[in-house]
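[recover] target loaded
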């Protein structure tokens, strides 16, 4: 995760988070159990990835930003990038 997210979820800083293999949606919800409110920050009210959030599985950008069906396999890393707007 980008360090910007730690400002809102300090309990996740300096930790390696693990979740069982599954869809991106399932992994995000597993993180939300460790840091309540996390999915509200990265997902919109329909459960899609917010416009300024980018997700990657290893070195591949997550394609399905609406249903989050891309699969995260055992040993994969899900990267969460919060883009910052402005100059």
């Amino acid at each position: 995760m980008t360090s910007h997210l730690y400002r809102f979820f300090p309990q996740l800083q300096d930790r390696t988070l693990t979740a069982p293999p599954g869809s991106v949606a399932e992994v995000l919800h597993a993180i939300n159990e460790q840091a309540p409110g996390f999915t509200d920050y990265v997902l919109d009210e329909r459960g899609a990835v917010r416009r300024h959030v980018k997700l990657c599985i290893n070195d591949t950008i997550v394609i399905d930003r609406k249903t989050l069906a891309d699969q995260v396999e055992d040993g994969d890393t899900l990267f969460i990038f919060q883009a910052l707007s402005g100059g």
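[recover] notes: Helices lie at 3-8, 24-34, 38-42.
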